[in-house]
Amino acid sequence: MKFFDEAIINIKAGKGGNGCISFHRAKFIPKGGPDGGNGGKGGNIYFISDNNINNLNNFHCKKNYMSQDGFKGQNYQCTGKNGKNLFIRVPIGTNIIDIKKKIVLISLKKNRQVFLVAKGGNGGLGNINFKSSINRTPYKKTEGILGEKKKIKLEFILKADISVLGLPNSGKSTFIKKISSANTKTGNYFFTTTKPILGIIKNKLNNSFVSILDIPSIIKKSSLGKGLGLNFIKHFEYCNLLLHFIDISMINIKNNSSIFDIVNIINYEIKKYNKKFLLKEQWLILNKIDLPHNKDNLIYYSKKILIKYKFIKKFYFISSKKNIGIEKLSLDILKYLNK
Predict the structure, then answer these.
(1) How many CA atoms lie within 13 A of 96 on its CB side?
(2) What is the 3-state secondary structure (H, E, C) of 226-261?
(3) Top-level class of domain 1-156
(4) Which is the most buried residue in 49, 103, 129, 185, by most CB within 10 A?
């Protein structure tokens, strides 16, 4: 199944019911006067966050949402029934964006958070409202007012404590599969991860849970639409820690293929999307330590990176496949997030 984290929908709140023209009729009251009631109010439209939803897939099947119109007024001064409100359920972490105004109306960050996005129209007035000493038999009413109509963009951002990033085949998915509940696809080909995947890690330090996010790999010129693009980077929003994975078997010091080159590629693309994400703490994870490499040179380069890039605080040598260094890295992650 495809994963959709954005959708554009049209919403239209209910129209108010029309007012009523009516005159009272009774056996011994020949001139009973006007008794037409007002129309009912049109239904509102609300968004409500729901922790049982984890994508926006349903909004790619249905694009138009309307609440119920108010009912027209009745005789005997009876006000028409109000239209039913419409509640649209979205995942926690959804931004509600007014496309016309180009503003974020709200970010729904808590479960069952409710937001009124479109108001229904007021009902029209019945002829009882137009009776006066001059006009005792008014044949006048007003129409119900149209409800608000908007074009809305929904933008869903996964809420994760940690995210992993890196070039294709850097071993991100294997690592996440090893330490969490995520059922990620692994394989020796580009873009095995084609959609964001959220895994859960049991934190034994305080019996809580930590969420870790795997996103599609970033490549050079992703900001220009290469590979799977950069749109998935928005899911870094709530992350406290970014794990920057590098396949050390790809590093060749003699051919000037260095860790610096890879770090520069990844962080240049992140900067093109949103430079504030570079302020988040990053750890450098040198993966596939079980493969042939020159560890002394790699340690040298790693220390140089820690000096050059202030946002990279630590580096680790691991092998997700052989389970080397995984326990220490996992423990350090949990300690960091537990602060």
Answers:
(1) 24
(2) CCCCCHHHHHHCCCCEEEEEEEHHHCECCCCECHHH
(3) mainly beta
(4) 49
**Are the C-beta atoms of 88 and 46 separated by less than 8 Å?**
yes
Would you say residue 7 has pLDDT above 90? Answer: yes
d(CA 228, CA 195): 9
Comparison of pLDDT for 311 and 124, the residue scoring more: 124
Q: What is the pLDDT of residues 197-244, one digit of tens each?
A: 777 777 666 666 788 888 777 767 665 666 555 677 888 888 899 998
- The structure's pTM equals 0.79
Sign of torsion over alpha carbons 117, 118, 119, 120: negative
151 phi/psi in degrees, rounded to 5: -110, 120
pLDDT at 189 exceeding the cut of 50: no
- CATH fold of 162-337 reads Rossmann fold (3.40.50)
Q: 265 φ, ψ to 5°?
A: -60, -50
| Residue 160, helix vs strand vs coil | coil
